[in-house]
Amino acid sequence: MNNISETAPIRTEAEKEQIPLLSSLFESKHNDVNSVALCDGSTQIITDSPKYNIYKKCIIFCEDDGTLAMASSSIGSGSIPYIKNEQIKILCEDYEYSEINRILLESFSNIKTTEEILIYLIKLLPNSIYDQVTNRLKELFIYWEEDTDSEKGEISIESLKTMILFLANVPLKREPIITLDDSGMFHCKWKKNDLISLLLVFHSDRSAEYLLTQVSEYYKERPQIMTGSGHINEILEKHIQTKVFFHLM
Amino acid sequence: MKDIPNEDSVLRYCKPQWLHNNQPQEAAFVLNENVNENYVSVQWLEFFGMNSEYENYFAAHKDLAKRHKNLHPKGVFALLNVGETLSIFSTYSLLIRIQQIEEEKAHAGIFYKMGSLLAAQLIAQSVKKTYPIPSK
After folding, report:
1. B121 and A201: CB-CB below 8 Å?
2. How far apart are CA A66 and CA A243, in angstroms?
3. CA A167 to CA A186: how far, in whole Å?
4. 3-state SS of B58-102?
5. Which of A133, A20, A122 is nearest to A71 (CA)?
6. From the CA of B17, how many Å to the nearest CA of chain A?
7. Which residues of A touch B118 (CB under 8 A)?
8. Per residue in A72-124, pLDDT tens?
9. Average pLDDT rounded to a whole number, residues A27-56
């Protein structure tokens, strides 16, 4: 049963052209996603299957206009904004992060500007933080333009894509603190109670550095520190297994 | 190059894209790899010899504004005490130097090893207070 909201924005022809068709990448393999309900312009995926959990991804391919969207929150409460289509083919797949990011990266490949990234963000971030992240990015782009420091480089679009690929794959509940350094690299930080913080710096080669600091119960002046770097897929896989990071996000 | 005395302070101009709720984040203190930076530029506050911290800050702002004409109105100046910052770093056995760059000028630098995200975070945590950019 589909209830299409009339308030959902209509995609422009320019937006549609920017989004490549990815139908060849998907196959429908799961039968236990039972229905889709469009409520207030968003799409909900509903399933009774207990095997779906917060880390599974749901990719929706719209046959009508060939757009791609993803729910990064738990199936059953996941929502994809602004899909307006009566014929939605639901494709749920137990993708590994490397495969999800490969698919996203292929669709990202033609995106070269910050403006295009902002258009694409609507598909990838949970509703709960989409507005805050988009507004913060717009603010950063403006500050960068206004900054006449000759020693700063260019905004690294690839660093931005790396950050978005990472954010699209975590069950975000808290808005990250996003900053932009003079090398053009994007930083994301989450803090909890001033006792623990996680900082990620995203690089143009799909890697990230991370720094986790936690105030020690025993040595207040000397927090516990965990630092490292690696491909974002490895960071995602490793920390999902250990659940080190995601309670902060 | 001369070490800044432990009892003195330095000021770092922080651009708005480095701030969250007007507080400098790590992005304000990472070294710029594009230009192979090996120090973070700061102003030596007591160099100006005024009677108060605020008067020194105002003089430092004027000095920096001559060299960097477009200080963003939404930026801030971050104040760090040299001795306290060095003490935090020694707890972690990390090397850092805070030194005057040019003789007879207030321009100073916080020197640390390139690529150390922890160093950038510790410096950000050492910020004692921030001053807004004075309006023109």
Report:
1. no
2. 35
3. 12
4. HHHHHHHHHHCCCCCCCCEEEEEEHHHHHHHHHHCCCCCEEEECC
5. A122
6. 6
7. 211, 225, 227
8. 433 333 333 333 333 344 444 445 556 656 666 666 666 778 887 777 766 56
9. 42
Between CA A165 and CA A157 the distance in angstroms is 12
Which residues on A lie below 8 Å from B18 (Cβ)? 179-181
CA dist., res. A68 & res. A123, Å (int): 7
Give yes or no for a contact between A94 and A44, defined as CB atoms under 8 angstroms apart.
Answer: no
Which residue's entry shows tokens 């100006």? B48
pLDDT tens string B45-55: 999 988 888 88
Structure tokens at A81: 């904004």
Chain B nearest-CA residue for A212: B118
Chain B residue closest in CA terms to A223: B92
Residue A78 contacts residue A44 (beta carbons within 8 Å):
yes
Tell me whether A150 touches chain B (CB under 8 Å). Answer: no
Which has the closest alpha carbon to A155: A202, A110, A108, A200? A202
Q: Looking at beta carbons, which residues of chain B come within 8 Å of A189?
A: 20, 25-26
For residues B16-35, average pLDDT: 92
Query: Any CB–CB contact under 8 A between A116 and chain B?
Result: no
Looking at residues B108-133, what average pLDDT do you find? 90
Inform me whether the C-beta atom of residue A213 falls under 8 Å from chain B C-beta atoms: yes
Residue B17 to residue A199, Cβ atoms within 8 A: no
Residue B26 half-sphere exposure toward CB, CA atoms < 13 A: 24
Nearest to A146 among B27, B30, B72 (CB): B72
